[in-house]
Amino acid sequence: KVNPSLSNQFMEKPSAPSGPIEVSGMTETSCIISWEIPMSDGGTPIIDYDVEKREADQTFWTKVGTTKDLQIIISDMKKEKAYEFRVSARNRVGTGPYLISDEPVVAGKKKTPPSPPKNISVLNIASKSVTLQWEPPLSNGGSELTGYVIEKQPMATSKWTKVVTLN
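RE: above sequence
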């Protein structure tokens, strides 16, 4: 019989998510922030991430939301206001320390990479080709879209290679 106190003995709260916090998909009132998994999950899987924001001249943080993903959409930002963000990881032991953004982000000011294209689907698969379809991204990142980069990844590897750039 396993003693429950012994099975939890080597578990702890996770470390802070790995950074830096990246900003993409900027609009006048929203952006997308992303981060990487913590260096340590504390010996038990990460359940989700808590995300908070504050205006850079304020002391109190407000909750943006909780997500299982490594990114979240930040909405309801005030145009031309500076914001800071922080993210913490949670496992079954508890919530770990925060990763805090390196510098304030001003809504609508920073040009960022666009958000990903929406509704990507495969229309046709042939022996040596595939036909794809997608819709433009929700956000152009504050700059006109100039094209799309199509990449492929063999299933057995983690390496992506560029196939074509469409203008």
